[in-house]
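Section 3.1: Structural characterization of target chains.
Under the original work plan, the team committed to producing a structural model for every single-chain target entering the pipeline before any wet-lab resources were allocated. The record below documents one such target. The sequence was received from the expression subgroup and is listed exactly as submitted; it comprises 357 residues.
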Amino acid sequence: MQSSSLFDFHTDQSLQRPALPVLGEQKDIRYYASRAKSVLNGTDVTKMGFWSINPYVGCAFGCAYCYARYAHRYVIERSVNAHPEQRQLREAFETLPPWLAFERQIFVKENAAEVLRRTLRFGSEKHLNLLKGEGIGIGTATDPYQPAERRFRITRGILEVLSEHQGLSIWIITKSPLVTRDVDLLRRIARHNQISVHISLITIDRELARRLEPRAPTPDSRLRALARLREHGIEAGINVMPVLPGITDRPDQLEPLIKAIATAGATYLNACALRLRSAARQRYLPFIEQEFPELAARYRATYAHSHQAGKRYREGLDLYFTKVCARYGVPFGRDDEDDDEESEGLTPDVGQLVFEF
């Protein structure tokens, strides 16, 4: 596992423990205690046909393309209003743009396991439907194994609760090899439930990954985590999400990645092109201007009227993944969200292997 993920926390002893205490700090990141009223987000909230659990609000990995930044502003705003005595949080709210607060002000749901246990035992009928196989995604708007998990163990507590039940359908999304710490629980859950781990990996180029995902674990460590999960019989695959136009979409980037994923024993590979909604756009487009200035104008034109790349580009990408995944014997899945939406921009011929940008 990557040593830089072992953050050195310290508690601010100068603070009394207010309603929203600071649990620890690491360089420019502050961790706040949060008492969750509920943990399960229903399908009416996710709008995606499955339930979700997010042990943390915000994510310290700071990936430039992250789509999940959108919700963070509202969480901080509510917390500031509810806890005016919390000076650091108020100052952060007033000075940090929301996209940056997402990776600098992390909320830790200390009571998540307790709330989940109570919900699954005494919840409403719609909650009890979870016990009939409705899907639960863990980590849809945060990484459940970000460095804070080493200390706070919120995700492990959630898995311990889920291991008490049968008939669940669970998947975990993470970039961190820390997920292998919980192999014992994953195996226990798998005895009576469906569970899989989606490890996010968009390139095996370590230098490029560091530019795109400055605090995330290395590509090699993620592939090793995948192999270890498979050795223990845990269903696990890779999300190549998102494919970044002009950056990670060349065949000389994608084919070695697919080959490495297959070699590590992935049970599937999912992929989709970059989606750029408003909050992510505020972070990603300035990043492109700074790191890849030759692509900036094309990105702005491509995503000017839609959060998606052009339909023909997406079709070409799917065709390429289908062909190369078949060559290396790893099943390919695709994300069908907004599949029928038309948009302009990147439009390579669907027969091309090079996705011109």
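The first strand starts at residue 22 and ends at 26.
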